[in-house]
Amino acid sequence: MTKKIFGIDLGGTSIKLSVVSTEGDIIDQWSVPTDNKDEGQHIIHDLNQAIDAKMKENNWTNDDILGIGMGSPGVVNREKGTVTGAYNLNWVDEQPVADDIRSYFNADWPIFIENDANVAALGEQWKGAGDHASDVVLVTLGTGVGGGVIVNNQLVVGQGAAGEIGHMFSKEDGRKCTCGKHGCLETVASASGIVWTAGELAYAMDDTGSAIQGRIFNGEKVTSEDIFKAAEAGDIFAEAVVDETMSHLGRALGQIAAVTNPKYILIGGGVANAGQYLLDKVTQHFNESVYPGVGATTHIKLATLGNDAGVYGAASLVMANI
Amino acid sequence: MTKKIFGIDLGGTSIKLSVVSTEGDIIDQWSVPTDNKDEGQHIIHDLNQAIDAKMKENNWTNDDILGIGMGSPGVVNREKGTVTGAYNLNWVDEQPVADDIRSYFNADWPIFIENDANVAALGEQWKGAGDHASDVVLVTLGTGVGGGVIVNNQLVVGQGAAGEIGHMFSKEDGRKCTCGKHGCLETVASASGIVWTAGELAYAMDDTGSAIQGRIFNGEKVTSEDIFKAAEAGDIFAEAVVDETMSHLGRALGQIAAVTNPKYILIGGGVANAGQYLLDKVTQHFNESVYPGVGATTHIKLATLGNDAGVYGAASLVMANI
């Protein structure tokens, strides 16, 4: 029997798992809830039980497993296999994740842990919109703005903090970011950045009669999804918000492309559910600012795997390292 | 006898050559003038004669040569070993550089040709301020702004146009660049960009009594070197010019660092002769804009090899590929 790989995506809501063959075929895929009570001390135990159950179900022994790849939030120590400061797991101190798995199973499996945004980039490269290109960047627009950069078929980790796309300086006199700096891309192009920009513009512009602007004046909650939908339907105020935020995103993508000139920059995350309309807007602003030789060779696309990118990318970590 | 490598840096004024051992020791180094008359058709012939003379001087046969590495201006086709549009060599059409060398010597040497800015980055990584780090970026501030990006010990070429640092969008409502876009870093932080910024600021500011500002008012020529020297000596106007230009450079370096988080970003080129004063200014602005986790791990330094970076980097191309 050929060996199997476990791909794991640790998230604040669920732990997603996959079993992948050494040929790269996805054999099985499921998830278990994340129990982040008691400072997240149940998470690895629950994960171990999920792996154990799958092994028993298939009569697999330790020798049938080639290795484990994992994407995690927080700061990953790749050599030690630990995770620190993963706040949505309630992990503040350093967690010996790889050691805890190996000792539960009494196995000497290779275990590769990587930042979750980086792992998602690998997943999109392998099974999604990255289409096996050797140079791919994934930018995720969610609560924050994250990223993963692949160059020459290798993940770029730099000194540990590569792909911090969300904290690229983006806006002159921009607002304060969670990182302490001002004007980071995340303050403009994340879901909350888009909503904040709408608030600013609502009061900076005349009353356009826009329903979205009116809701802001009334103190009602507006989401980035509402704004994109209204813009696509022709709401002038919402269009202005989309133009302002996507111009900053388009320029940032141009700056990324000037550095690594990837074949694809993929846009993922919840905000990217706005789809083709968002893609057209960001591509327009990208083309306005990017060096022509770079713009002609770097293409912006929507990511296609959604929440599955992580488990696929996690499994690919094992294949890349063995 | 161990084999030898030729490292060659093709430039508009001179062709620089080096002989390097397979252990990476530089055995010999010299240069010949670049004769770019007659559409540059003498250049490769002169280069071949320079190599030939060195081989005869040492009684080397074709078998004693491991390969040739070369840095060239213009657009390089790495597979074909050709160069197109190297205007300071007067090469407009595609030149079969590698084939012309091999046929002159009737040799089957491997010949690696790479963009000159990329080759300089490899040289600084190997023998200069890059200190053998696996992740290094070189930014050259000269007539234009160029760059070379190294990740995981490999040159980043992307789809052929990676490292186009000079054309990163940098300045809102900035002036038109040679590439056709507006506000590129090159329009602000190259030697000519700094002089242009001085001209803009001279008329935007009140008369500060600055000698530099006075020379601009009188229509006299001012260089970026004049501006840095005056700023360091306390000229208020020149300080304002340095602050404006270095703030754009510092932010751009922060954006590069957010993408690849290199250990070192090295500043080279003629403008960098301003030395420690320039380094302090750009580092200050870098730290103001960069994500703290990136700023703590990416260090800005001055390049140390000057014009020698090219020949060393060119030789290293052979060692990396064999």
TrEMBL record, chains A, B:
E.C. no: 2.7.1.2
MF-aspect GO terms: ATP binding; glucokinase activity
Organism classification: Bacteria, Bacillati, Bacillota, Bacilli, Lactobacillales
One Pfam match: ROK
Any one GO biological process: glycolytic process
Keyword Repeat tagged: no
Family under the similarity heading: Belongs to the ROK (NagC/XylR) family.
Matching PANTHER family: BIFUNCTIONAL UDP-N-ACETYLGLUCOSAMINE 2-EPIMERASE_N-ACETYLMANNOSAMINE KINASE, ROK (REPRESSOR, ORF, KINASE) FAMILY
Matches recorded under Gene3D superfamilies: 3.30.420.40
Organism expressing this protein natively: Aerococcus agrisoli
Protein name per its UniProtKB record: Glucokinase
Main EC class the enzyme belongs to: transferase
UniProt keyword annotations, A-Z: ATP-binding, Kinase, Nucleotide-binding, Transferase
One Gene Ontology term, aspect cellular component: cytoplasm
